[in-house]
Specification:
Helix 1 packs across helix 3 and helix 2 crosses helix 3. The chain is globular. By secondary structure, it is mostly helical.
């Protein structure tokens, strides 16, 4: 049986942002320097920290794409 993931509002937002950028959660966790499990916990609400850091990594990623 497949487990379903219950994302928080932030988790849903982040998931959509990753889809827009064609990034997987694992790829993004490596870019952000976060353990994949930590990123998953943030997206599901088990970890309430790292949100600002995640937003900053997305901004940096977008800037890098613009200059490439």
């Amino acid at each position: 049986m497949r487990r379903t993931t219950q994302y928080t509002e932030f988790g849903l937002w982040l998931h959509m942002e990753l889809v827009k950028r064609n990034l997987t959660s694992r790829e993004f966790s490596e870019l952000a320097g976060l353990n994949f499990r930590v990123l998953s916990d943030v997206m599901t609400g088990r970890n309430k920290s790292h949100k600002d850091e995640i937003k900053e990594v997305l901004k940096r990623y977008d800037k890098e794409l613009e200059t490439a």
